[in-house]
Amino acid sequence: MDRRTFVKVGCIGSASVLVQGLDPMVRAEKVPPAAPPIDLHGIPDYKPSPLGMPGLFPGRVVEVRDRNAIVRNRVSQPIVRRLLEQAMKELTGESSARDAWAKFIEPTDVVGIKINPSGAPACCSSPEIIREIIASVRSLGVPARSIVMYDRYSYEIDIGSYQVLLPPEVQIVGIQDAFSGGGVGYEPTVYCDANFFGEWETRSYMASIVAHQVTKIINVPTMKDHSAAGVTGALKNLAYGTFNNVARSHRAPHSFTNPLVGLMCTVEPLRSKAVLHIMDGMRQVWHGGPLTQVQAFIEQPGILLVATDPVAMDTIELEAIEEKRRESGVSSLWQHDPSSLTADNRIFFHDASKNLFFRQPGHIAAAGKLGLGISDLKQIDHRLRPS
Amino acid sequence: MMMTPEKATSKSPPDWPTLLGDNARTGGHAQVRFHSPEKAVWQYRTGSPVRSAPVFHDGVLYAASVNGVLHAINVATGTSKWKFEAAGQVHSTPSLFGNTVLFGCDDGKVYAVDGNSGKKLWEAGSQAEVWSSPVVRNEIVFFGSADGKVYAVDGKNGQPTWSQELGGRIYCTIYAEEHQLYVGCGDGKVYSIETDSGKILWSTATGNGIDSSPAVVDNLVLIGSEDFVFYALDASNGEVRWKYETGLGIASSPAVSGDFAVIGSKDGFLYAFEVQTGHLRWKTAVGEVVTASPVIGSGVVCIQAGGTFALDMGSGKIVWQAGLGGAIQSVPILAADSIYLASLSGEIYALR
Predict the structure, then answer these.
(1) Are the beta carbons of B249 and A122 separated by less than 8 Å?
(2) In this prediction, does ipTM exceed 0.95?
(3) Does B128 contact A121 at a Cβ distance shorter than 8 Å?
(4) Residue ranges of the domains in chain A?
(5) B251 touching A (Cβ < 8 Å)
(6) Does domain A49-181+206-386 have CATH number 3.40.50?
């Protein structure tokens, strides 16, 4: 049986097509265009896993931090090890880190570790955290060759030097090169179909590695703002790193990251396989994300967030970045003021009052409504554990 | 007999048989002075990204594209002489052993291909991808593999001579001297290995994994580490003679010329040092990120970092830049009156 899901999000998306090519300031309507219909095609008859999002602990987010975990951009391996063990035990209620990990991973699993290298080298998933995850997974009996660290673009993985920094036998996979054909490495029958701005290719395909190779995914997003999505956290790292052809969802000044991010995360088998989210908050980008290299907008708070619920995790992340922006006297990520828009990347990267798009942090709450987790702060069990 | 020359020869146009021009990593020093390029005289499409550096020999440019194809390009015309297709992706910079082209492959093998015909001569295996560039010394080919081993094989037939396991993945191109090899490793150590036996002579730990490839000059091993630091180690015993901390990790490899060494950092700067003292001569921002190796020409340093930049060797000031050659893994070739660039988008350019 074809479990094709048709999600009718809106029907006046074509309005946005008419205004392409104009200056973003001119295009900045107060009422943004509604998203077009988005058609989701998962693997037919895929049996959902009870570990799938929102996972074993909906609404629970454990935050551990240690200012010494990162000093002058260097992440401390021993402190990260301690923080991760502490957070995993707190999340699961287990007394040992090994038992905590065993709630998610079995020795026969092929474990995918989804990193975020897109801001490398200034802000990307820290190799030190990836090493600890690998060590923890291996401690359960998973062989190194059954661990696959992956992301979409191989050249971004190269910039992070992950190949060198991880143990031998761990597989390191860039699904595609930046400029090569987009179809290689993707499953042609699993996709999201939507026409946002009149683009010629309306489908985004799921990576084959996610569709077929790995049995569990540990998601390691970074803590940073995103010029189109508001923040790029657990949800966006999974969605936009698993499917190809996603940049088409935002064309200045409009962004359909809401609802596309959440919808992509509901597609099976991605939803079922993503069992654990470990947010790397060693660095926190509060402006210029996801690609900035401007250190002035990158804090080093030494935070780890751990959850099975990506919506709750991203809600906490969003609050943290909002707080930092308030402290710095710049506008909220929710602001939709046309005068804040610029089409010049150079201005955007160096001026925290400017942005390229009307950001869409509402994608987090929208994902909550899809059942992926809890976005209401009052309902989130945020366990802050200082080191 | 050592087939790969220690120094670039003086014939014109000079050969460029391995990473950074020759086994001494001089990166083109003392070759013909070149000026700011004015035009691209040809453009060759490989059809796949190029994430390694080309090499040059006797009018032919050899470039490996990621899709596993080794291209031999006639530089007079910019046309294909032959192509050789390996069984996996290729990230390794080719090197030349006489008329044989050597390169590593993601299928774990090093391939030896005849430079005239493009036919495979032999292959040598390892257990994981080979991103490093094979180097040749006394007819022995040395290479490191992501399986954590250094291999020595016979340059004539690829038969194994010895292998030595280190503590992590190896993406570093080995520096081969008469009796010692020097190599950086993913376990963060720099190793010295006996050429004949593979025995580890010494190792020195840095603070993180090593992606950089060493140069050796005046008994100093120069190498960068992902711990942000550029090291000068005593080649005899591995002791740290001096070190310099940059702003982020170092994947770039140093180019040297006399008492001058230059290296890039992921913090976006190029750093130039006096080799003996470690004194910083200059540092210049050239891009957001520098991961490629610079090369030294006559009075200038060239680097690919989102474009191609030429800096005055004395002052570090940018004297010209070109938008072509945006790859940040490749290294330009400075040959006679032309510069050859490879790009992430898969084009090879000849600039003149």
Answers:
(1) no
(2) no
(3) no
(4) 49-181+206-386
(5) yes
(6) yes
